[in-house]
Design goal:
With 177 residues, the chain is mainly beta. It has 2 helices and 12 strands. 12% of the residues lie in helices and 41% in strands. The protein is globular.
């Protein structure tokens, strides 16, 4: 099932070391979906050239003090970006739909592999040297589970299907090569 007319908040320019000096440099919205690959979609923007594979969670569990709670979150998305002008080739990015607890990390588990993503506001991403490892694990995996904590203390666990991931990320890569 593809994502239609999805408004995707796109992480802007990130410094080479992926450290923020004053937060996210820019943001865009796109409804420019160019392909659907099972549970993943592909978007492309012409100027500046940018392509990405994106999916929404299949399951979400939100708890506070061990009890399941209802929460209000904006879009929760797992993405892989390609930006040829910035030499970005397969940057993994997650937006949890809420501001993460300051100084926290988001846990990413793909089958039996685990990674930590650092956070800034509503965004989380791995160290640059982990992007390729995570993309490779996602291509082999069945699901990706991201666990984070909000500034209000709510723990979130979002499960993403990886069905169609390989086709979507390969398509996005080709479009931006």
């Amino acid at each position: 099932m593809g994502i239609t007319k999805l408004r995707v908040a796109v992480l802007g320019t990130v410094a080479a070391a992926l450290t923020f000096v004053g937060g996210i440099a820019s943001a865009q919205e796109s409804t420019n979906q160019v392909a659907a690959k099972t549970d993943w979609s592909v978007f492309e923007e012409p100027s500046p050239k940018e392509c990405w594979a994106v999916s929404t969670f299949k399951e979400s569990l939100n708890t506070r003090n061990g009890a399941v709670v209802a929460v209000n979150r904006s879009q929760t998305l797992l993405m892989v970006f390609f930006r040829p002008d910035q030499k970005v080739n397969g940057q993994v990015t997650f937006t949890g739909g809420y501001p993460f607890k300051s100084g926290s990390t988001v846990g990413l588990k793909i089958d039996d592999k685990s990674y930590d993503l650092f956070t800034e506001g509503e965004w989380a991403w791995p160290q640059p040297e982990d992007d390729a490892k995570i993309v490779a694990a996602m291509k082999r995996g069945k699901s990706a589970v991201l666990t984070g904590q909000s500034g209000r203390g709510t723990k979130t666990q979002d499960t993403f299907s990886l069905l169609g991931f390989t086709a979507a990320v390969d398509d996005a890569s080709k479009r931006c090569s």
